[in-house]
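Design job #97: recover the sequence.
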């Protein structure tokens, strides 16, 4: 039924089933559809409750790409129960159930939509910092070390970067961190650990994108090489299920190592590639977890344009 003719006591069977069994995003999507409200109207109703939530966030919530976790977001969920004429605590209960049982509700891989959205946000953040995707540097070698914590969260990642300037005057590098589902980029700590110092930092909450500027304190000439190290401490999101890196340009070596906490070991790990965000994943190869070191890795002697990463499954 259209909004305006649906009585509060009449609950469509699909919505009733979703509210009973979840998951949260399916129930939210069914409730919005049952009331016939576009997301802009939902956002307007929320503002009347004194709650500010973007249309993008609402879209992510009903797709399952993100889940409300912050206090303001949980206020929004309680308001949604009234706006969408749902039983008290019905949506909050589904969120609580998902938090208590993270195993069966494994985080999905990054969707095409989320990757495209992140790409657009990244370009805007770089433009704010007066930089492009290239930045005047070619990567010769990039070695990343990712740590997964005891709560299965992306705890931190560190990078050892080797670059060569392809024009005169380059004196900085823009590093990108793309957090997991539910991360809070404003709480992520940025570290400049060797041959650089931290400059400006920008982030976008809805996509979990953070861009950090690392200053070399020297101006490279065309052809000069430079080595530096930096890292990000995250730990603000829920369970992680993959780490990937996108490359806009071919060339250079890339190595990725993922190390797991001894209290949270995955049951399976694999590497994968994608030609683009829209392309299906391919190149799947199982990776054996080393016993004592609790880590897996991949090495690309010469990267190609596209995406490469490591995924894992929890019991």
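Job complete. Output follows.
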């Amino acid at each position: 039924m259209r909004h305006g003719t649906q009585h509060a006591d009449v609950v469509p069977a699909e919505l009733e089933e979703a509210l009973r069994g979840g998951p949260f995003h399916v129930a939210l999507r069914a409730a919005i559809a049952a009331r016939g409200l576009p997301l802009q109207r939902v956002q307007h109703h929320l503002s009347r409750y004194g709650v500010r939530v973007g249309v993008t966030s609402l879209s992510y919530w009903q797709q399952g790409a993100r889940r409300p976790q912050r206090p303001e977001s949980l206020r929004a969920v309680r308001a949604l129960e009234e706006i969408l004429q749902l039983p008290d605590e019905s949506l909050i209960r589904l969120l609580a159930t998902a938090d208590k049982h993270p195993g069966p509700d494994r985080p999905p891989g990054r969707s095409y939509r989320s990757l495209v959205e992140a790409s657009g946000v990244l370009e805007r953040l770089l433009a704010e910092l007066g930089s492009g995707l290239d930045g005047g540097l070619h990567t010769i070698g990039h070695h990343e070390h990712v740590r997964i914590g005891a709560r299965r969260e992306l705890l931190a990642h560190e990078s050892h970067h080797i670059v060569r300037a392809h024009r005169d005057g380059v004196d900085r590098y823009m590093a990108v961190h793309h957090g997991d589902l539910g991360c809070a980029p404003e709480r992520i700590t940025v570290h400049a650990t060797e041959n650089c110092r931290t400059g400006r930092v920008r982030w976008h909450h809805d996509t979990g994108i953070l861009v950090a500027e690392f200053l070399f304190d020297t101006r490279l000439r065309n052809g000069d090489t430079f080595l530096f190290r930096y890292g990000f401490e995250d730990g603000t999101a829920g369970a992680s299920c993959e780490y990937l890196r996108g490359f806009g340009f071919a060339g250079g070596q890339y190595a990725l190592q993922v190390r797991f906490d001894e209290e949270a070991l995955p049951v399976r790990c694999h590497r994968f590639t994608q030609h683009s965000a829209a392309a299906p994943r391919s190149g799947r190869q199982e990776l054996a977890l080393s016993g004592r070191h609790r880590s897996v890795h991949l090495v690309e002697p010469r990267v190609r344009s596209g995406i490469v990463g490591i995924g894992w499954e929890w019991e």
